[in-house]
Amino acid sequence: MNTVPLALYAAALVAYAWHFAQRNALVGRTATTLLIFAAFAHTFVIGMQTMEVGHVPIAGTTSAISTFVWLLALAYLYIEMTTDERAMGVFITPLLVALQTIPALRPSVEAQSDVLRGPLFGIHVSSLLFAYASFALACVIGITYVLLFKEIKAKHLGFFYARLPSLQVLDRMNQVAIVIGWIFLTIGIIVGVVWTAQARGGYDAGDPRIQAMHLQDPKILAAFVCWIVYSFELFAARRIGWGGRRAAYLSALGFLIVLLNFVPISYFLTKSHNF
């Protein structure tokens, strides 16, 4: 089922690229429509998977990636519809296609282990996924900021200048995305600590995966490093004036850590988050 959203995300990518190159209003509306259909199709897939296993598909890495893609698509559509700006679609949709390829090629919905049942686990994972979606948007906004800045600095106002919002608007959008992501990342980490303490005191305390839940685990360590990077970015923006390019580079660094945590660490390195 994951192939249908993937195909629609790919079609939206082509349309956004065409719109970005030609600035054709009709093509832009078509791109948005295709992305809306992709999000609806993805919602249907997640709904069917929820009915199949009895819970929102976030327990396993592949399911979590699919849910992250869905949240990122919805978050971007919200920004696009509230700002009436489609320029960043050409930067967001490649990420949607690349990540959705994983659940499309490895279709699986993992049954939820008993230790994962309960509201705290759902809040923990949902908060982190929403935070990561916000950081993905911040990264894309940061990339567009750097592209536009370089064009303005070179005094060659052309391709990006005609297609992207102003530097001030991009910087403000980046900061908003970072603040929202940081809030949900903080909530996710705090709830995760509480949930881990409860799990260690429960009947599954002997599970080696529960025992592996400590700061030395690569996935948990990467989440804390990510929190430190974005906390510093917020501090630097407010206290020492690190906006603009510096904030854009920090956003890219933070999201690189997110991607590493999402794919190679989740699949190959963690001993605690492989339920």
Describe it.
The structure is a single chain. With 275 residues, the chain is mainly α. The chain folds into two domains: 112 residues; 161 residues, no CATH class. 76% of the residues lie in helices and 0% in strands. It is built from nine helices and no strands. Helix 3 runs antiparallel to helix 4 and helix 6 runs parallel beside helix 9. The longest helix is centred in the middle third of the chain and has 35 residues. The radius of gyration is 19 Å and the shape is globular. The model has no long low-confidence stretch (mean pLDDT 87).
Q: How would you sum up the global shape?
A: globular
Which class do the helix and strand fractions yield? Answer: mainly alpha
Unreliable parts: none
- The first-to-last residue Cα distance is 22 Å
How much helix is in the residues?
A: over 70%
How much is the radius of gyration in Å? 19 Å
Mean pLDDT: 87
**Strand-and-helix sequence, N→C?**
HHHHHHHHH
State the total count of DSSP E strands. Answer: 0
Number of domains: 2
- Main beta-sheet annotation: none
Q: Strand content of the residues, in percent? A: under 5%
Multimerization status: single chain
The helix count comes to 9
